Amino acid sequence: MPDAALHDEAGSKRERILDAALELFAERGYHGTAVPLVASAAGVGAGTIYRYFESKQGLVNELFRREKRAVTGHVLGSFPFAAPPRAQFHYFFERIVDWARTHPSSFQFLEHHHHQPYLDDASRALESEVTEYALNFVRMLKAAKIARDADDHLFLVVVWGAIVRLMREAWSGRLELTDTLLAQAEDACWDAIEAG
Amino acid sequence: MPDAALHDEAGSKRERILDAALELFAERGYHGTAVPLVASAAGVGAGTIYRYFESKQGLVNELFRREKRAVTGHVLGSFPFAAPPRAQFHYFFERIVDWARTHPSSFQFLEHHHHQPYLDDASRALESEVTEYALNFVRMLKAAKIARDADDHLFLVVVWGAIVRLMREAWSGRLELTDTLLAQAEDACWDAIEAG
DNA sequence: ATAGCCGGAATGAATGTTCATTCCAATCTC
DNA sequence: GAGATTGGAATGAACATTCATTCCGGCTAT
Fold first, then answer.
1. Per-residue DSSP letter, B116
2. A10-24, B110-124, B158-172: which range is least confident on average?
3. Smallest Cα–Cα separation from B67: which of B105, B93, B38?
4. Could you tell me the CATH number of the domain that includes residue A36?
5. What percent of chain A has pLDDT over 90?
6. CA A47 to CA A52: how far, in whole Å?
């Protein structure tokens, strides 16, 4: 009796639904994706989705949190908190870009659903929590007089805006992410941060 | 004989539909906005929309082009092509931010619908045309050795990404757009462009 | 001048479709 | 065989679009 396999299947059915939803929500958006479409992409019946998730909104929120935790883990999991600031920034940039390249749907999904009205309190709280990490990094840079004297949020806006746009252009084929280009992008972002 | 008034009314009805669609599409997205909702917001019957526009998709495309032309006119209408590069950049930044602040729905709508699959060839062509202006500016900066040596598109990615994000944060109340902050943002963007 | 007609613009109820969600007979699992 | 799980048909709400009808300003006939 494949007992382990059994539990795997049960677990994997839930995962399969989340995986299919990730692809579809990333590509077509929340309102543009029908639940039965998610079901058939996941290879399950439409009703099965409602055994694992309360509603379409519940599904998108659980997915949001799964993906947010995954990126965060990827970046912070082995973050070199003791390294020099520029090296820390390099690590951050590299890890984020690495995630976006290896998990494009996840990146696009998170970006697309950022602060949407159907996200619930738990999802919003998770978003704030992650932002707080970035703000602490900025505060450290400012305290060390490395970053220019500007609003804390400005740095996030500039760097995150650039990264997101970079990925979108790359993903749509309008830009090729060579190592050279990525190094240039990282430098440009750092120079936007650094004190004049 | 209120001949002029008659034509005004007819013209303004079409405009009212576009105006209502702009607000709703900007706020709720394309798939999240029902046509009858646009109709009632415009104060017309649902059927009337189909007198002026072929379909929901036709409406969103005509709106996209109207708004794209409007921003472009706002920025390029009196652009100081003869000014020094940094002054040109300042003008560009100021005008874009001014548009985003005075026409938030327009800015948000354009950003939200950027490269969406329901945009038609005419809308896409207009998008490319506008991008070409920006690329020419970048090429000039590079030829003059003012901009760092990097992919042309990188500059658009960084600057435009930052501006879009800035506006989104401001619009959602997470950031206040003071003159100081905007000046800091402009400087940060310029430093991301400028040769090291 | 005015009653009555005309044609295009406007309407919103009706239509057929698609959606999120529910339900239950069939199928698993132990 | 009891209990849980499943797929997918069924359901009702909401959607984009259509169309038979109404409305209204100007024109004609008298």
1. -
2. A10-24
3. B105
4. 1.10.10.60
5. 88
6. 9
**Residue B147 main-chain phi, psi, to 5 deg:** -85, 150
CA distances to B136, B138, B154 from B145, rounded to whole Å, are 14, 11, 16
**Cα of A146 to nearest chain B Cα, Å:** 14
pLDDT of residue B163: 97
Q: Specify whether B61 is located in the same domain as B25.
A: no
Exposed / middle / buried, residue B130 (Cβ in 10 Å: 0-12, 13-18, 19+): middle
Looking at the structure of chain A, the number of domains it has is: 2
Under an 8 A CB cutoff, do A153 and B175 touch? Answer: yes
Distance CA B140, CA A78 (A): 42
Host domain of residue B155: 57-193
pLDDT at residue A5 tops 60: no
Question: Which chain B residues are Cβ-neighbours of A184 within 8 angstroms?
Answer: 148, 150-151, 154
Residues A143 and A67 in one domain: yes
CA distance A60 to A57: 5
- In angstroms, the CA A67 to CA A150 distance is 31
Examine the domain organization and report whether B91 and B130 are in the same domain. yes
Q: Which of residues 38-67 of B touch strand D (CB under 7 A)?
A: 46-47, 50, 55-57
**pLDDT for B182 beyond 80:** yes
